Amino acid sequence: MKKNLMKILAAAGMAVLTMGALAGCGNSTTETTAAGTKAAETTAGTTQTTTAAATTTAKAAAELKGSISMVGSTSMEKLATALSEVFMEKYPGVTVQAEFVGSGAGIEAVTNGAADIGNASRNLKDEEKSKGIVENIVAIDGIAVVTDPSNKVENLTKDQLIAIYNGTTTSWKDLGGADQPIVVIGRESGSGTRSAFEELLKLEDKCKYSNELDSTGAVMAKVASTPGSIGYVSLDVLDKTVKTLKLENTDPTPENIKAGSYFLSRPFVMATKGDISKQNDNVKALFDYIHSDEGKELVKSVGLIPAN
Predict the structure, then answer these.
(1) Counts of helices then strands in the chain (DSSP H, E)
(2) Would the pTM of this model clear 0.90, i.e. be above it?
(3) Where does residue 248 rank: exposed (0-12), middle (13-18), buried (19+ CB within 10 A)?
(4) Quick one: 108 and 248 in the same domain?
(5) Strand pairing partners for 183?
(6) Same structural domain for residues 146 and 240?
(7) Is the pLDDT confidence value at 118 over 70?
(8) Across residues 62-74, what is the average pLDDT?
(9) Residue 303 confidence class, pLDDT cut points 50, 70, 90
(10) For residue 191, what are the contacts with CB-CB under 8 A and spacing of at least 6?
């Protein structure tokens, strides 16, 4: 009888242990299922948020309508054209009109309310800022010094470049080149490139030009076709029709400009009358784009350095 009782108690104990184990397994399964459900809900929520953001962006793009006018620097033509084309693809209801007539004219246009944006390839002057014009730097450009392709000179020091443009040095022979007169080519008065070049070299009103041309393209063409010539142009227009000189043994590359080792560099400014926050929705969207990661890649694609 005693043996039978012991067997019954042992069996009962085993049953209790088995039920406990099964209960533990049941709780684990429930917790895992709950965690999985929560993760799925989180993923779904993230997807919904991303979709909502994309929908909002698309809606904003569809709602923007009208036009944006940009006037100014010929040196900024490549950037402004690329920016206009991409922006109009993203915002089909907005037309971007760009006119390239020089930095001074661009600042005057935005000051007078004739343009939404004044493109300038230089820093704004204090007198311009005093009229409520805001300097919005969107890119950094290098100014390259170029000669005709047959020129044998490879490098100029800063002092040699100054001596050429102030008329002290008049023959390439004095610089290790051919016995040939130097034909000094520059931009017209009011050009942002000229203003930046002369300011960086402290040559304001001191340059002795053989030719003063009204666009970057004209300088490139004149230098390419004129033996003994020298000129300065925006970094992003360089091609094989001219020879690009080193300055202080440094090439005009984005890397060297960003490092500060190439001394001829200047800002590309998209000036507005008042802060960006005070502009219309179309203009604000344009600045939002150029300051975005995609906009910065666009700046790089045309040979410039993003401002930030």
Answers:
(1) 10, 13
(2) no
(3) middle
(4) no
(5) 229
(6) yes
(7) yes
(8) 94
(9) confident
(10) 73, 74, 75, 102, 103, 104, 121, 214
